[in-house]
Each structure stands twice: as structure tokens, then as C-alpha cells.
Amino acid sequence: MIIAQVIVDVPAKQVNQTFDYLVPDKFHDILEIGMRVIVPFGPRKVMGFVINITNDSKFKRLRKIIDVLDLTPVLTDEMIELGKWVAEHTLSYYITAYQAMLPQVLKAAYKKEIVRLTEDELIPELEVLFAGRDVINFDEITKANIPYRLVQKAIQAGDIYINYIVQSKATKKYITMVRPILEDYQLMEALEDLPKNAKKQRVIIEHFINQSEPLSQKELIKRYSTSYSTIKQLKQKGLIETYQQEIYRHPYDDKAFTKTYPLPLTEQQKKAIQPIKQIIHKEEHKVVLLHGVTGSGKTEIYLQAIQDVLNNGKEAIVLVPEISLTPQMVKRFKGRFGESVAVFHSALSAGEKYDEWRKIYRGEVKVVVGARSAVFAPFENIGIIIIDEEHEVTYKQEDQPRYHARDVAIERGLYHQCPVILGSATPTLESYARALKGVYQLAVLDKRTNNQAMPEVKIVDMRQELHAGNRTMFSRLLKLKIEEALKRKQQIILLLNRRGFSTFVMCRDCGQVNECPHCDIALTYHKSSHRLKCHYCSYEEPMPIVCPACQSEYIRYFGTGTERVEEALTKLIPEARIIRMDVDTTRRKGAHERLLERFRNYEADILLGTQMIAKGLDFENVTLVGVLTADSMLHLPDFRSSEKTFQLLTQVSGRAGRHELPGEVIIQTYTPEHYSIQLASQYDYVQFFNIEMRLRRQFQYPPYVFISLITVSHPDHLTAINITEEIVQYLSKHLAPQTSVLGPTPSPIMRIKDRYRYQCMIKYKKERHLKEIINMAIRPFEDQMNQDELQIIIDMQPYQFM
Length: 802
Ligand code: ADP
Ligand code: ZN
Ligand code: ZN
Prior knowledge:
Blueprint: E1 3-8, E2 19-22, E3 36-41, E4 44-54, E5 67-68, H1 77-90, H2 94-101, E6 111-116, H3 124-130, E7 135-137, H4 138-143, H5 148-156, E8 160-166, E9 169-170, E10 173-180, H6 184-193, H7 199-210, E11 215-216, H8 217-223, H9 228-236, E12 240-247, H10 267-282, E13 287-292, H11 298-311, E14 315-319, H12 327-337, E15 341-344, H13 350-361, E16 367-370, E17 382-388, H14 405-416, E18 420-424, H15 429-437, E19 441-445, E20 456-461, H16 462-467, H17 476-487, E21 491-495, E22 504-507, E23 524-526, E24 531-533, E25 540-542, E26 555-558, H18 562-572, E27 578-581, H19 591-600, E28 606-609, E29 622-627, H20 641-653, E30 664-669, H21 675-681, H22 685-698, E31 706-714, H23 717-734, E32 740-752, E33 755-764, H24 770-778, H25 782-787, E34 791-795
Parallel strand pairs: 13-18, 13-19, 14-16, 14-17, 15-16, 17-18, 20-30, 21-28, 21-29, 27-28, 29-30
Antiparallel strand pairs: 1-2, 1-4, 3-4, 3-5, 6-7, 6-8, 8-9, 10-11, 10-12, 22-26, 23-24, 24-25, 31-33, 31-34, 32-33
Helix pairs in contact: 1-2, 6-7, 10-11, 20-21, 21-22, 23-24
The chain binds adenosine-5'-diphosphate and zinc ion (ZN) (2 copies).
Adenosine-5'-diphosphate binds near residues 295 and 297.
Protein name: Replication restart protein PriA
EC number: 5.6.2.4
Enzyme class: isomerase
């Protein structure tokens, strides 16, 4: 008796365990751990992952596996363990964790087809089935009762391949290739035999006499203006053959990257890379925090460390924030490692992502560069994991499973006994504190590689501007500096720190602000469509002509959206050519890159945008960076708001003067005395760290304590409060006396999509059984969560408190 233990695709608490299934005879030989199967579950058929195969079960009367979806496993042994770890650490379901680790295409039971890869004779069963076709439906195999074992063999031999069909789009692409079958002299003889008027056939044969490299049928037809029938005739004569070659959809054209070579390292870089190389050499697991100012050559260190890893025959994972996964970044890795690099990008289509995943899985690439989820790249012999800009919040997934890529990286680093490198100019307080304690190793780069000074930062007090009668959003100094830069034909980046800021509509007579009817948040005015939109749900309405409350006509919009800044800037400096970059102008695929490319080609003087322009960009001609509203983020209800402000200002300042030309930065603010603004302008990370740590200790925030957050939401206000209260009660009773359990507190945005939201915050130093206790606290509400509108979200390590 063979039994498979399966995690089924039913995300529910009661189902969050393995189920035993009997493996029918026909699957005995082929089923392996890590494959996906279809199993009966209640009255349904569901997908599941086989995570163990055994010989007995404590259950009687087992049901049978209906179908096996893969003929090669999609989860490695490490991944199976990692998925359990992720689920347990984030209090998510196992199935959700496994699905987060795989590309979209493998998350569901897609239709399959079988593609013939060879012209050679297949086994008779398959040959009969294909009957001259190149692609057949997988169902035909099942119908014809051909043993899967035979199919699996043919796959292993590379004769056929299984293709998952994603929606209407083929997951894989094939092209027909043509190659000669005979030797050169034989082809020459054949050429003699060909009738003189068979010109088209002759040119093709002539082509192959000079070179036997295969060429795509399409290219051949194009190049020699021939046709399919010509190729068919030559095939029939036995001179050439055609075959299907799988091609990967190329999001990047590898040939477009110029090869780069390791730079001789500066003294600083040598000192920083040395301990990393040692860890690689000793094959140990250690975390290194690489604290290096912008432009100090961190990326070059990554590249050279990876080279060592590749020389050892191992693989590398590089995580970068989605936002800085720019063509520039990709170019640096492709330029050094060429085709060994796979790129994971949210802009890739499901099919393209699957292509990249498969290259990793089959060991065709050795380096993966990607955003958060690339931490799950299915390499089996990892030699280094690098997290660039480790302070970025995008490394935390804000959806189940709520994992942090840093934690997963460290877990994998342990498994593979390899270093994990965290790089940043502004490390999180957590990481820096760990480095000071010796939990992580610290490496420092405090100078730019070109020894250029960091650009000078001037702080402008906007209150004084107002007193001086300047009501615009541009200080006199910034205006002057922009004009000077324009005269010198240099470029400018203007950042509108928009988080927590928007263009809202207010009646000047009665003060009424237009709010979303479903969420406790002001609607945002969008000039291009002249409509009001809610940024938390999809609600929108036309811009009212009169105040809905008092009918006054004096209704207008306030605040500073990028559109308004652009308008004001055009008025102020009409000759400036502006590129605006925000969510509205970058919605379409590739728009982000196109805008940056235009700026790089000097098709504009000013790049105006939100946070998305702050990072990773490197423009030679930019000498001025202006921050319009530095403090808009400082007053968010988030204990990390000072840290985030410091990080953003430091990052954006690093954009200026990266090359020959010296840079300058102007920060406009209403709170010039704030330490995060002052210290960012002095590039003093260590001092910032010291002050911020003192405050964190005083108010008991991480890294002095850990925080977990439970958010309860329900359409009924009172229900939301009461359930939160019950959870708080339970936790207070069962957690340590030193632990504080706060709540019920309304979430900063108390209502979203007509649901009331309440929080319970747990601050603790040591709680050995926290997860179990939280689970117990939630248990009484499980039924209600399944049947009712109740939602309880647990975030073991929150980065968002809204
Ligand atoms: P960071 O990643 O720390 O911001 P980069 O790796 O982008 O820094 O380096 C900044 C610039 O310095 C890049 O243009 C890079 O090519 C260059 N650079 C890095 N290391 C060296 C070196 N050893 N010698 C010369 N130039 C270097
Ligand atoms: Zn809304
Ligand atoms: Zn009014």
C-alpha cells in the first residue's frame, strides 16, 4: 500500500494539515514528493501538493488520488520544509505558503498539452497518438490509457515536453528550426542533382553548405524569399530536417548587454568584501550588514562576491526592491553574468515568470535578480543571498503569507550554509542594532568610489517663505537653483513626498470635505478625469459643482498632487520641460522605463515624481535634487515614520552629483528642526540611529521589543469592537505579565469598504508560545470567520499600521 500525504488547496483552518490518500497502481512508479495531484475532497476535486509518501496510515478507508498533475516535482525537499516554516512563522495556511513559493502558472490545475521535441521515432504508443501532429492534448494520453511511466520516460529522454496552458496564452513557445542532415560534400552532390530551375531549393542548400548551424524556418524563408513548400520539398528529399525548439520569451535581449569585467576594488571595498569571501570560502552561514553610503560601490561588491560563488559551482539570489528593478540594475547583472541571469519582475506576464522559474529549476541559470518573491527561487545549491536596500518595506509581503524576505533569506542561508548580505545606506534599526551586538557582521563603506563628497544639502524653512509672502510651493531658493541648473543645461529631480498627502476637496464656506462613503478617508481629486476617487476602494464620483452639504459654489481642491505641482511649476518656469512620474503616468506596462529613458536622453529638464523616483536611479546630468515636502510622512501614525523620512531623504540626496558634476540638494520643510531631517542633511546615520534608538527604548518599540498586530474587521461596528475586546482579554490573561496587550484601538483608517477595523497590538520581549496563544485566542471565532463577514488578520511582524 502506498500512501501520499497531501496538503490540499482549501485554505481553511480545519483543513490546515496533511490528508492521506491511496496511490493507485498506475501512479506507483511515477509519483514523487513535491508533485501536484488532484484528489477528492468532500464532494469536490481539488489540487494538492504531495509532501510525503509512506506505507501506512492511521486512517481506514482512504480515498484515491484521481490524477497526478506533474511528472517532475515542482517543490524540492528544501521547499517543502521552507513552506512549513513560512506557514508556521506567519500563522498562515500551508497551502497559502506553498502557493506563494511557486509561479502563478503552477498554482492551479491548468490544462496540459504534450509537445513533441524530436523527429526521432517515439515509442509506438506515443507515435500512434501523435499521428503526425506536433502537439497533442494531455487528456488523449489518459483516454488512450498509456501508462504515465512511459510518458515520464519520454520526458526524461527529452523527446516530449509537458506544457501548461495559461488562460488563452501558451506558456511555452516553440519555433521550427531547420538543419541539414548531410555532410557538406553530400550537400554539394545533392546540389548538382537539383534541377537548375529549382532556384529556391538551391539557395537553401547553398546556405547550409557553408554552415551547418540550424536556422529558424521563419528566418530562412525571410532571408531567401522562399516558402514553406520549398522547405518541405527539401525535407522529402532527405537533405534537411525540421524540429521544434522551445524558446523562452525574452523579456531582455541578452545581446543588448555589453559585457563588463570586475573593477579593481578600492581599499574600502577590499576591506568590506574580505569577510564575505571568507564566509563563502568556509561555506558557513553568517549575515553581513553592508552599510555603505549611496555610490560607495556596494553593487560591485555583490558582483564580485557572486563571481566567487559561481566559481565554486554554486548559485546566487539577489533581491532588490521592485521599484529599483530598473533596466539599469538588470544591466549591471546581465552585463557581468550574461545568460546565467534570470530576472523576476512583477511586470512579467505569468508565462514569462514561468519561463524564468523553469530556467532556475532546470539549472540553466546561476543567478536570479528579483523582487521579494525571488527569495523562493528553486535553486538547490545556493552560495549567497543578497538583499539590496534591505530597509525597504516592500520586502514584507502585506498579504498572506505575511513573510519578510529577510527572514526567509536567513532561513535558506542556514539550510545552504551560505552568507546572507544585507546592503543599505540606511539600514533598519533592527539590522544595525543586530550588527552592533555582533549577531550580524558589520562591513562599512563610508566614501563614494570616486571620492566625491556627498552633495551639499540645504534645508529651507517653508514657514519663513510664507511670512515673506511666498505662497507657492516652491521656495525662492529652489526656484533660483532650478533656473541656474536650466541655464547650465543640467537636469533636476523634484520629489513630492506624497505618502499621507493628497489632493482633497473642501468647501470654503462650510468646511465640508468630500469623503468616501465606504471608507473613513477623504476622496482624492484627479484632474485629468475631473473626478474624485477613493484610494482604498474603487469608489469614484464626478467632481461636484456645488458643495453637497451647503450648496455653496466655493468648493475647491487643496493639497499637492503631482499634477498640481506640474501645473504650478509650468507657471513659475515656463521654459522648463517636465516629465511627471506617478501612479497615474506609470500605470501602463513599460511606461516607467519609457519615462526614465526620455529623461536620460535629455528630452526633459525636470523629473517630477513621487517616491518611485527616489531610488536606484543614476543620471549623469542631474545636479539638483529638490524635496518639496519633506515632513509629510513624519506625522503618520507609525513608529517608523522618522526612520522612513530619514531613509527617503538620504536616498533621494544620493541621486545628485553621482558622476563628474557636483550635486546639490534642497529640502523644503515646515519642521526644519526635526532630527530626521537635520541628520539626513548631514548624512549622519550613526547619530540618527542613536537618537532614534533612545526614543524606541523610551516608548518601547522595536528593536527593544517585538510587535505583533491583530486587526479585526466587520461591517457591524459593535461586533468589531467586541471581538477585539475578547481577543485582548484572552491574550492579557495568557501572555507574560511584562507583555503589553493594547486595544481595542480603532485602526488609523477606521473604516475601509464599509468594514469597521479595530486593532490589538502586542508588545513583547519574550513569549515562547505566542503563536499558539494567538491561535487559541482566535479559535472561538473560526466558525464566524468562515460563515460570517468577520475577518481577523494576524501580522506577526507588521510594517503597516493603517
Ligand atoms: P552603490 O551600490 O553603493 O550605490 P555602486 O556599486 O552603484 O554603488 O557604485 C557607484 C559607482 O561607482 C558606479 O558607477 C560603479 O560603477 C562605480 N564603482 C564601483 N566600484 C568601483 C571601483 N572599484 N572602481 C571604480 N569605480 C567603481
Ligand atoms: Zn473607499
Ligand atoms: Zn459647503
